[in-house]
């Protein structure tokens, strides 16, 4: 069998999974069966999100590799009849297509392994044992489709190749997919990806830390005003990155399904960029606090602010300088190319999907 995985995160998940999958499948299937697992990394979702097209690509790739079973993994959110697709199975052709974002943002490796195990056992069982009933008549089992998971069987069209489908729906399903999309984007990569913005923020913070006017403002501001400054600067940075790098997803389609899909993509963008900016903000606060503790002269600070310098005053100063530095970072992000920001904010598959959409709008 083969694990056909999109590059980047799906390939990493497939490679880790392949180390334990043969033994687990052999143990669970019984009858002395042996499973040879091969990982193939290639962008099988390039240029399309259409399920029929993806299924045909997987079939063709399976025929070329001469595998009995092919399980395809992608980090793109796929849709079927207005629902978010979890997994498609075709017992006749021995293939399965798994959309990783629908498994959520937590315990992704474990959930993906459980889903692949159930899919492979279902495909192998019906192929090898001649189980009674039409293909796909036996539902999948396992914890990934348990009672607490918002996963249930989905509708299949008459002309579709799949004979068994699972989807997610409802508010819990929406949040699950959103978490999976944010996880696929890896928001922690936004921090090192915005090197010029960080350099501008650190420079602004260093200058503000030794500015006596900033000292007086920091000691005179109340906590609510500091909170407003913090929230405002973070929101400004998020909005600036999204607008400046053109990260907002727009659709020309007027159908409710297309609008919901666009809203989901934009929500994942806001959360992804938001997490990255918050991590940057916390880092700036800590760096500013360390700088204040080591650089500022207690006597000069006390004579200027007429307040004895204690840890509280230093913390308040760092708290106030962080929004100022964040605004400086927002201005510095203008020096970053749009491609660099997209590379830091999105997975490779999502970058390619947005590039295709831009080309279509350009045409």
TrEMBL record:
KW Membrane (keyword) present: yes
The residue ranges crossing the membrane are 197-218, 224-243, 263-296
Q: Which keywords appear in this protein's UniProt record, sorted alphabetically?
A: Membrane, Transmembrane, Transmembrane helix
Report the domain of life of the source organism.
Answer: Bacteria
What is the name attached to this protein's record? 5,10-methylene-tetrahydrofolate dehydrogenase
Species the sequence originates in = Streptomyces fodineus
């Amino acid at each position: 069998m083969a694990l056909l995985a999109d590059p980047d995160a799906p390939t990493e998940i497939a490679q880790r999974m392949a180390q334990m999958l043969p033994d687990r499948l052999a143990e669970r299937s019984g009858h002395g069966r042996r499973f040879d697992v091969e990982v193939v990394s290639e962008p099988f979702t390039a240029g399309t999100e259409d399920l029929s097209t993806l299924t045909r690509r997987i079939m063709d790739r399976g025929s070329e590799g001469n595998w009995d079973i092919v399980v395809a993994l992608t980090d793109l959110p796929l849709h079927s009849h207005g629902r978010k697709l979890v997994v498609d199975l075709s017992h006749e052709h021995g293939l399965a297509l798994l959309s990783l974002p629908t498994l959520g943002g937590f315990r992704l490796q474990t959930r993906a392994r459980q889903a692949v195990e159930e899919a492979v056992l279902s495909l192998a069982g019906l192929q090898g044992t001649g189980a009674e009933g039409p293909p796909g008549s036996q539902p999948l089992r396992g914890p990934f489709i348990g009672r607490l998971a918002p996963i249930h069987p989905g509708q299949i069209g008459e002309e579709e190749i799949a004979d068994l489908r699972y989807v997610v729906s409802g508010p819990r399903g929406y949040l699950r997919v959103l978490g999976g999309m944010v996880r696929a984007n890896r928001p922690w990569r936004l921090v090192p990806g915005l090197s010029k913005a960080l350099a501008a923020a650190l420079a602004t913070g260093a200058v503000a830390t030794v500015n006596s006017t900033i000292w007086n403002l920091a000691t005179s501001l109340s906590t609510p005003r500091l909170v407003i400054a913090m929230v405002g600067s973070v929101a400004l940075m998020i909005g600036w990155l999204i607008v400046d790098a053109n990260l907002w997803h727009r659709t020309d389609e007027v159908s409710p399904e297309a609008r919901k899909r666009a809203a989901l993509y934009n929500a994942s963008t806001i959360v992804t960029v938001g997490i990255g900016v918050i991590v940057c903000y916390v880092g700036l606060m800590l760096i500013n606090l360390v700088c204040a503790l080591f650089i500022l002269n207690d006597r000069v600070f006390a004579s200027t602010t007429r307040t004895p310098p204690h840890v509280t005053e230093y913390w308040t100063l760092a708290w106030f300088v962080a929004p100022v530095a964040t605004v400086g970072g927002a201005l510095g992000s203008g020096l970053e190319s749009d491609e660099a920001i997209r590379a830091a904010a999105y997975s490779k598959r999502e970058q390619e999907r947005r590039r295709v959409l831009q080309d279509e709008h350009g045409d």
